[in-house]
Amino acid sequence: MDKIKLNAKNYKTSVPIVWCPGCGDFGVLNAMQQAAAELEIPPENLMVVSGIGCSSRIAGYINAFGFNTIHGRALPIASGAKLARPEMTVWAAGGDGDGYSIGTNHFVHTIRRNADITYIVMDNHIYGLTKGQVSPTTPRGDWTKSTPLGNPDRPLNPLALALELGATFIAQGFSGNVKHLRELIVKGTQHKGFSFINVKSPCVTFRGRQEFNVVREHGVYLDENHDPTDWNQAHEVTQWKEKIPLGIIYQVQGVPTLDEIAEDLRRKAQDKQHFESTKDLLEIFR
Ligand code: SF4
């Protein structure tokens, strides 16, 4: 029997979308659905895990196994899902408030373990669901409901943080360019290891529609002059102040993934089923 060709519509659900009209997250949803179709991932082999926030509702909007978890905890749950079912494609998704505040520790350790999942962060520089408080990526000096005198803190730089922590795939996209974002998600999903995609995804309600223009004016698409295998070049790009890099910033292959390490440990443990002493038991970790 001929294989049925999947398209983006196969990944839509009947769950009503409650995002504000014009929210950047619509572009991310479209890009994820298109990427799933391009990769021909049967919905039953795809899992989308999210945290809490406007963008985290996305787990219910994609026809796949969806798990809208708890605040900041998408990554450990996605890592566990991948360990349990390594044959599945696992995407984690959420916002900057979810992933870079309460979720930061999981961001650090998921990168360290190189879990073979793709993490898509809809970075809008604000807490949208709770109605407009300062987030870890709000620019310094910006007015928000919780910083009426302007944000006194320096914003977190998630791209630089991921690079320093040893992430094996780092990219940045824009929800206003679905085609480009779809390509990043496809490449991130094909990457063996932790793929991190930060997406400039404006919150039109609490930061205004001009945020789209900010990315259009300052966004620079990385071309063949950028070598994503060169850590120093990647580092330079993550330090840009006026320009916003868009594309694959860094990618390194061949780093063992969490599920590969777990499988290796499992095999070693099976080989040594009759441990004579604690010392023997510890040998399997060497
Ligand atoms: Fe999108 Fe902002 Fe509305 Fe939330 S509050 S749905 S982030 S526009």
What would you say this structure looks like, in words?
With 286 residues, the protein is an alpha/beta fold. The protein folds into two domains: 8-252, Rossmann fold; 256-286, no CATH class. The protein is 35% helix and 16% strand. It is built from ten helices and eight strands. The protein has helices at 25-38, 74-84, 96-102, 104-113, 158-165, 178-190, 210-218, 231-238, 258-271, 278-283; strands spanning 46-50, 65-68, 89-95, 118-123, 169-174, 195-200, 219-221, 244-251. An eight-stranded mixed β-sheet has the order 2-1-3-4-6-5-8-7, with helices on both faces. The longest helix has 14 residues, at 25-38. It is globular, with a radius of gyration of 20 Å. The site of iron/sulfur cluster has 11 residues, from loops.
In short:
With 286 residues, the protein is α/β, with parallel strands linked by helices. The chain has ten helices and eight strands.
